[in-house]
Amino acid sequence: MTKKVLFINQEIIPYVPETELSVMGKKVPQAIIDKGWEIRTFMPKWGNINERRGQLHEVIRLSGMNLIIDDTDHPLIIKVATIPQTRIQVYFIDNDDYFTKRKMTVDDNGVEYADNGERAVFFARGVLETVKKLRWVPDVIHCQGWMSAVIPFYIKTAYADEPSFANTKVVTSLFAEKFNGSLADNFKRCIEHRDATIDKLEAYPESFDYDVLAKFAIDYSDSVIDTNEAVSEELRKYAAEKLGDKFVTCHDENLSETYNSLYNALTEENGQ
Questions:
Q1: Which end of the chain is more exposed for a tag (fewer CB within 10 A), N or C?
Q2: Are 132 and 81 in contact (CB under 8 A)?
Q3: All residues at 6 or more sequence positions from 169 whose CB lies less than 8 Å from its CB, including other chains
Q4: φ, ψ at 115 (rounded to 5°)
Q5: Other C-beta atoms within 10 Å of 120: how many?
Q6: How far apart are CA 202 and CA 172, in angstroms?
Q7: How far apart are CA 38 and CA 26, in angstroms?
Q8: How far apart are CA 121 and CA 259, in angstroms?
Q9: pLDDT tens digits for 134-192?
Q10: Contact 140, 172 (CB under 8 A)
Q11: Residues 151, 159: Cα–Cα separation, whole Å
């Protein structure tokens, strides 16, 4: 049976400008398809994405759910497109308030949106609810970009008993890109969902800066990949101490072999 990887990306070229994140958002899924894995790929439908040029269209059967974040309803819209000259189909998580009417993580003046934490929570839950609707069971979830940092926690708590994710292993990649400052004070409250209760977050400070968020993702991941020499030594050391040989360094050399071997090792732990 073909093994499956769910990629949850912050950015993917050609839909957004070329950055370290957007290049890897396309490069890694393509490399893994070439290794024979079945994949699904998700990203936010950032407001600067040209839907006509990218040939995005709404998937009505997957849209229409309301997600409650901090006691407020937010409609979930799902769109889809295929990256030209590839076999990569991308699902886009959309919402008028969180994504359509905004740029990416910063506004026109380069100021970070105050509700980026809420946006990350909506994105995470939107992806997982959509995968459930697709009745698709990933063996591995690979999170690329800090917007997906809530995913590992949800997989090990709120979605742990879901058939789609019961045996799923979670990989988090660490990149050089980070945000400045901290997420809003309501971030912990926004994360609460089912068994993802606020008491499970007591070990973390009220103020989530980038390093706290990264450590939060590491704590609930089965493996972490250091993708860039610019990743902080503090985070490298933290991940290595937490994960031992499941902390992997791969600065683009032999990417397809390294990732393929890691995924296989993780799935073999489940006897797959």
A1: N
A2: no
A3: 139, 140, 141, 222, 223, 266, 267, 269, 270
A4: -105, 25
A5: 27
A6: 22
A7: 15
A8: 26
A9: 999 999 999 999 999 999 999 999 999 999 999 999 999 999 999 999 999 999 999 99
A10: no
A11: 10
Q: What is the DSSP letter of 97?
A: I
Phi and psi at residue 123, to the nearest 5° = -60, -50
Angle at the Cα of 20 from the Cα atoms of 16 and 23, rounded to 5 degrees: 60
Lookup: tokens for 102: 């905004």
| DSSP for residue 253 | T
Q: What percent of the chain has pLDDT over 90?
A: 90
| DSSP H helix total and E strand total for the chain | 8, 11
Residue 89's nearest CA partner among 138, 53, 56, 129 is 56
Amino acid (1-letter code) at residue 175: F
Tell me the per-residue pLDDT of 16-61, one tens digit each, with 9 for 90 and over: 999 999 999 999 999 999 999 999 999 999 999 999 999 999 999 9
Instruction: Indicate the DSSP class of residue 113.
Output: P
DSSP 8-state assignment for residue 175: -
List of E strands, 216-268: 223-226, 247-249
Sorted by sequence, the CB contacts under 8 Å of residue 268 that are 6+ apart come out as: none
Q: Please state the length of the chain.
A: 272
Which residue, 152, 46, 132, is CA-closest to 90? 46
Tokens of 61: 């059967």
Q: Report the largest interatomic distance among the alpha carbons of the chain, rounded to a whole angstrom.
A: 50
